[in-house]
């Protein structure tokens, strides 16, 4: 059962089951020539992932925008984004997947607010490594992959694997900060508040799109919330809410399982006309135009 799940493609259900069977941490080595290589269909998972391109290049669509990952590029995948591998030409990569529950149970503070800001100036959450850096990170990831295949009854194996995971995580953040000449992470009240806001939005954006709702939940004023979120992420609270709503709308529109009225209802808009105006304001096209020009199946 476990082996079957690990060789399946990136459907959200299979991915979550495989992660659960592996205590929330999983490593995989991928080659485009393998029969069980990732599906070309769009996928979305609720976990985090780190992907390192070891050979060739990958054409990847992230939240419906095209990007290219080249050899020695490393990509940080955030929960709930929509991904689609557009080209199955020669490419090899190694990936580490970790769930929110794994981070929580292991006492890891993964600062999503700081990570959001750190990667915000890039088109996607990725950066390129030098040959030396690539070798360094590759062997970090390979070590996790090997240790995860050690029998689970090996004494202290969970702690050994977790320490390797932490080493990888912080090595990557140190390299990213080095490239950007940034200051080290600071866990202060602003980043903590932003993390709580991002978590609330990801759970409630369908039914609540007003900044005042989240401000009330956090017991602060809307003005203060937007100022803090802007400071940490370079985006206002309202812009982040809109971003999550539009991302979900695009996924629903391209799935072809719902018509526009049903999408509007799913996203809790009062009617399809209001949804259409909102969507066009944010994207520049109507839902119908977007649906017609993005004919994919999820």
TrEMBL record:
One of its GO terms (molecular function) is DNA-binding transcription factor activity. Keywords: DNA-binding, Transcription, Transcription regulation. PROSITE patterns: HTH_ARAC_FAMILY_2. The keyword Protease does not apply. Residues 195-293 form the HTH araC/xylS-type domain. This is Transcriptional regulator, AraC family. It comes from Pedobacter suwonensis.
């Amino acid at each position: 059962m476990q082996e079957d799940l690990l060789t399946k493609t990136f459907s959200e259900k299979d991915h979550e089951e495989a992660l659960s069977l592996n205590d929330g941490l999983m490593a995989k080595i991928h080659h485009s020539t393998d029969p069980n290589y990732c599906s070309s269909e769009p996928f979305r998972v609720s976990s985090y992932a780190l992907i390192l391109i070891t050979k060739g290049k990958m054409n990847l669509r992230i939240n419906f925008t095209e990007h290219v990952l080249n050899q020695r590029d490393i990509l940080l995948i955030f929960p709930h984004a929509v991904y689609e591998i557009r080209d199955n030409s020669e490419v090899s990569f190694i990936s580490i997947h970790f769930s929110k529950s794994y981070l929580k149970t292991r006492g890891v503070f993964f600062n999503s607010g700081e990570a959001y800001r750190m990667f915000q100036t890039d088109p996607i959450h990725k950066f390129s490594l030098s040959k030396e850096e690539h070798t360094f990170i590759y062997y970090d990831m390979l070590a996790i992959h090997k240790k995860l295949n050690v029998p689970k009854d090996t004494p202290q194996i969970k702690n050994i694997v977790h320490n390797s995971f932490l080493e990888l995580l912080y090595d990557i953040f140190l390299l990213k900060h080095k490239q950007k000449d940034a200051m080290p992470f600071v866990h202060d009240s602003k980043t903590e508040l932003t993390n709580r806001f991002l978590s609330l939005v990801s759970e409630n954006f369908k039914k609540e799109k007003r900044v005042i709702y989240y401000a009330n939940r956090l017991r602060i004023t809307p003005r203060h919330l937007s100022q803090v979120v802007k400071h940490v992420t370079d985006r206002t609270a309202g812009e982040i809410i809109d971003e999550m709503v539009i991302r979900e709308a695009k996924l629903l529109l391209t799935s072809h399982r719902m018509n526009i009225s049903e999408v509007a209802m799913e996203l809790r808009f009062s009617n399809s006309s209001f949804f259409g105006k909102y969507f066009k304001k944010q994207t520049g096209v109507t839902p119908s135009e977007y649906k017609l020009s993005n004919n994919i199946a999820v």
